[in-house]
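Residues determine shape. We examine one folded chain.
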Amino acid sequence: MINFGFHFWKHALLWIGLGVFALTILFVNTFRETAVQDDWAYALTVKHLLETGKYQLHDWAAANMPFQIYYGALFSAIAGYSFSILRISTLILAFVALIAFYFLAREHGLDYNQSGLLMLALLASPLFLQYSFSFMTDVPFLSCLIVALLFYTRAIRLHSYPWMLLASIAASAAILTRQFGSAIIPGVFFLWALGSERKKKAMFFSAGLVLPIIASIWQLYTSITTPNWMAQYYMHRQSDYLADTVDILINIIWRPTVILQYLAFFSIPLVFLALLAFTFELKQAMFNKKESRFSKLKVILPMVLTAYILFGIIYGHFANDLPLFMPQIFEWNFEFLQGIGNLERGVLTLITSIGAILFARIFLLRYSSCQGWRTVSTNGRLIDLVTFFLLISHLIYIQIGDRYFLVFLPYTLIAVGLHLGKWMNRFNFTTAIACLIMLVFSTIWTRGILERSEAYWKGGEFVRSIGMKPNQIHGDWTWNSYYRFSDYVAEVRDHPLNDFNYDLVSDYFYHWLEEQRAQSTIENLLP
């Protein structure tokens, strides 16, 4: 029986991880008045709520996120509206995510040591740490998702209605942060439908689904009846994408190769441990003639997966114009890696490709034994099902991005942790040091991102303070967007989306902003 009792020494790695996170926050310094990527739009939504008392999603925001906006507004109402306060609200949810993940790992049968190491791996993951220092939806959504999985798992194990109610509240919060959270609903439903006591537990599972279903219906209703500018844009693109059956099928085959590589990138310390375990298993299979067919499958499977990952890299390069070397998907993350040599990026690609192969092997072996699905406990199946439906959502959605893959980390860390349990115990100190080294890298990188953003914002604010108007200033795109994006929308709002023969977002970045800068430059040169 697992409980939430806090026996200090048993939970030593939990306390160490949380303490290290606190030191990380002090080093990075969250008190910086600057936006990070898209969170300027989310901040403006909070500001509008505070000023008018009405929730109105900003036109740049694609995801409808009332939970996060009201949550951020609560902090702003107490401490004052600022990017720093909104960032602190996310950091608190990051703490919640780490604690909840630790106990979720315990619910899945991992011991205190293993759960603590996996929590350290989550903390050290570069995008988890970076987005903890922002007001983006990624960490708040991940936090709500992990809490929901923990509460559902505990509720099912104890057959507890109070825990099920708490789980449904957390699931609703996830759905009201990102619509992808609706994947929780089919996950819980099929856990019930595939169980052996469906009639007996129908009311129990229904209690855990009512609120998430209501939240999903509300999200669907608002997206249809009152979509903002960006929602209309993405609905238009999504409908075109779904109309191309061939493109969808190809992406369904190709996208998992990218997801697997990034999951390996996010948890590199476990890649080396998985490689060590596989080497040992390979040695056993080669020298033990009495090995079963299943044991031989564990060795043969990587050969097939190697071909699959290579296909993904080659296809992505020639068909989608992606780099051969990691990182393949450049949004605003990992831009600094574009500046390093091909040798270094090639080594990184080799490590992540090996990790992708080994992780995929572990996932498949989880269900390829003689017992298959039956070997996974009833409450343990929930994370598998929810992750499966999250994967479907990401395979058919028009946009693919590295930060979106964070939602697969809980399943990845737990599945890999269960497979490598004895190896983590054997090399616990080495694994912990590897996680801390990765955390140092992630921390320095995150601080650098915030310092650079802060410098741009200070420059823009200084020029504005001496009387220049925002349309005469060309700063960082986030600064310009914070003050000027509403002007762009006012220009294009009346044009039907079907009449545009170019990408509206690209037009905003590469045409409108550049045009404004050029126009401002000309005006400043005139007498």
